[in-house]
Amino acid sequence: MKIRARWAGIAAAAAALVALGACGNPIAHLTTERAVGDSVGKALAQPGLNLQISLGATPAQLLEINRIEHGDSSFTPHVASALSHMSIVVNTYRGHGESLELALQVGGTRPIDIRYLDGTMYARADIRTLLSDFGQTPAMASSARSALEKADAYLPGLAALGKGEWVFANLGELAPLLKLGGLNMSQNSQYKASSTALMRDLKSALINNTSYTNLGNHGGRTEYRLTVEAHNAVKQLSGDLSNLARSTPIPGASDIGNQMARALAKVPQTVTLQLWVKDNKMQEVDLDLNQFAHKYPFALPLRVTIAAGAPVAVPRGVTPLQISGIAGLLGGLGGMRQAPAHAS
After folding, report:
1. Contacts of 31 (CB under 8 A, 6+ apart)
2. Structural domain includes residue 19
3. 126/103 Cα distance (integer angstroms)
4. What's CA 236's distance to the chain center, in Å?
5. Most exposed among 99, 258, 309, 316, judged by the fewest C-beta atoms under 10 Å?
6. pTM for the complete prediction?
7. Which domain covers residue 204, as residue numbers?
């Protein structure tokens, strides 16, 4: 499906939420704006934050989207059901060092789970469950596991990953690989300055281009509609986006930034979001993706539910992913490749 083409708008909406909570509420003289700003600020002020991101679409609606986009029925009901129950879970928690958990959840299971704690990354992938959820055969899962077992000879720990076990690696050992890939960490200070400028100007752009409507209480929650003059806001941020892309230390990021800028230039004049508040805290935000395309006979909400986060735990029974040897080897090869030639 072509939903991926709209992730630029999604990223902008997520950044908007952070900016609204961090803006210090300069529009507090208006009751509705103050209520929204306070609810976002209280949610973000919690020691931990758990975001669950999903598409609010039924299997039948996803099948209809596939028919509209591709004109065929290759998208099976089984896959549509898995996608309708799929979400991306992001969990952060302050006070326990640097910690982050990112997981792919399908129904009640998490076939992919990645955790980062103080420089160490932990990962687990249930390949059989993941492939089965998306209509692949057990033979394909066995083939993937076999490939990882063979690769374990070069990178010990991959076999355990193929069995669905937890593995871990110290990200500091990846430095030679990052250098070989052209990652320039010397640009970090410039990147931080550019990102700070973007967030500062994003706050201003949102304050000047957003209106709020209280839609009443529904099921114990207060619903608000946020209307953003998106075209004007993006125009104000175009310079910041270009600077951020140029300063990003990841190879090829400047091209990604240019693509995002072109995508954002095509956003509608106005973009609306629905925000729900309970107990004076932001609880859910919906962004209708169909307002960017107007292709479907129904709304297609990108749904973000917000709850208190939990401390990110170190998994038990982890296997080391021994990347130091291969990282050192590839780093050495990279140094040889970049070494100047000497006349004999």
Report:
1. none
2. yes
3. 12
4. 24
5. 316
6. 0.75
7. 2-330
User: Residue 155's closest CA among 186, 178, 183, 177?
Assistant: 177
What whole-number distance in Å separates Cα of residue 87 and Cα of residue 136? 19
pLDDT in tens, the chain (344 residues): 444 444 444 444 455 554 554 444 443 335 888 888 888 888 888 888 999 999 999 999 999 999 998 887 778 899 999 999 999 999 998 876 678 999 999 998 999 999 998 889 999 999 998 888 888 888 998 999 999 999 888 888 999 999 999 999 887 776 655 555 554 544 556 766 776 777 677 767 777 888 999 999 999 999 999 998 887 877 777 777 677 666 665 555 556 556 666 666 677 888 899 999 999 999 999 999 999 888 999 999 999 999 999 999 999 999 998 876 565 445 444 444 444 444 43
Q: Please tell me what DSSP assigns to residue 211.
A: E
Strands 319-320 and 167-170: parallel
Residue 335 lies in a domain: no
**341 SS3 class:** coil
Residue 120 to residues 88, 209, 248, 324, 335, Cα–Cα distance (Å): 21, 41, 23, 13, 26
Pairwise CA distance, residues 190 & 201, whole Å: 17
> What's the domain count of the chain?
1
At position 92, the amino acid (one-letter code) is T
Q: Does residue 93 sit within a domain?
A: yes
Chain centre distance of CA 23:
22
263 found inside a domain: yes
Instruction: Tell me if 40 sits within 8 A of 21, measured CB to CB.
Output: yes
Number of H helices, E strands in the chain: 13, 12
Q: Give start and end residues of each alpha helix (H) in the chain.
A: 7-22, 31-44, 59-70, 77-84, 127-133, 138-151, 158-162, 175-180, 188-209, 230-247, 253-264, 290-293, 324-338
CA dist 136 to 32, 105, 113, 292, 328, Å? 49, 17, 20, 32, 36
CA distance 211 to 74: 42
| Residue 236, helix vs strand vs coil | helix
